[in-house]
Design brief:
mainly beta, outer membrane lipoprotein receptor (LolB), chain A, 12% helix, 49% strand, globular
Length: 261
């Protein structure tokens, strides 16, 4: 989420990405027991994953705080990060970095009314457009949205498959309204792939591909991994979140506190 994420400003600058669209990475998967439902909450696997995440108790919102390290070439910048997420898919990410300053991303709304903005260190607010808005899951808290019954969010259970040398339960997640909208605009759009631990059903990683709206032929593969889960305030949260851009680690977040609503 170079453009998804305020801290990936250099990708927006170099590739001129005014808006991004999420598309599943080109993965050769062996699918089994495939089933599609109209809403995430209708999926038995999503229901079980919710039970693992919050012991079956609905969590309306999350506030995560900790430290973030952003890698840019051979240099890194470490500072504070605050992330908020709601079960309707809205949320914000705010970084306070010694070198790059304060950056913020906000997303809100549902279906075709969803919109996202990015605010840089100079205070200028930019509309990130339909491509960022098309993401049905927040990359830093994907399991929160598994609770919702949003009819615009479609989930397909691909069953257990081997991916990256690991056996995982794969869910394809997409927005119905943006699938049609971006198809009309001839911008690639495919599901995000959320890999769950087949035992605990907690998220292990999220894969997707982003494309510049101005040149959809450019593909940027993104992968977010979640590890070191621990229980805090009644929910299971990863202590470490790492994001990779085309295979290279560029953002690492260490969660230090969790507040639920």
């Amino acid at each position: 989420m170079r453009s998804q994420h305020t801290i990936l400003q250099r990708t927006w600058t170099v590739l001129c990405l005014p808006a991004l669209v999420f598309i599943a990475s080109n993965l050769l998967l062996t699918y089994a027991n495939v089933s599609t439902v109209d809403a995430l909450s209708a999926s038995p696997v999503a229901t079980q994953a919710t039970a693992s995440f919050s012991n079956g108790v609905e969590v309306i919102g999350l506030r995560l705080a900790g430290t973030v390290t952003v890698q840019t070439g051979d240099t890194s910048d470490t500072g504070a990060v605050t992330l908020t997420a709601k079960e309707d898919g809205s949320g914000s990410v705010s970084y306070d970095l010694p070198t790059q300053g304060t950056h913020r991303e906000d997303c809100g709304g549902a279906g075709s009314g969803r919109s996202c903005t990015w605010t840089g260190a100079d205070g200028t607010v930019q509309d990130l457009g339909t491509s960022l808005s098309a993401a049905p899951l927040l990359w830093y808290a994907p399991n929160l949205a598994l609770q919702t019954g949003n009819a615009d969010t479609i989930v397909t259970d691909d069953g257990v498959t081997e991916l990256g040398g690991q056996h995982v339960r794969v869910l394809e997640v997409r927005s119905a309204s943006f699938t049609n909208l971006l198809r009309k605009r001839k911008i690639p759009y495919s599901p995000m792939l959320l890999a769950l631990d087949p035992g605990s059903l907690l998220p292990m990683f999220l894969k997707y591909t982003i494309h510049p709206d101005q040149d959809p032929m450019i593909s940027i593969d993104m992968e977010v991994t979640y590890s070191n889960y621990h229980a805090e305030n009644g929910i299971q949260v990863p202590s470490l979140i790492q994001r990779r851009l085309n295979g290279a680690l560029d953002t690492e977040i260490r969660i230090q506190s969790v507040t639920t609503q």
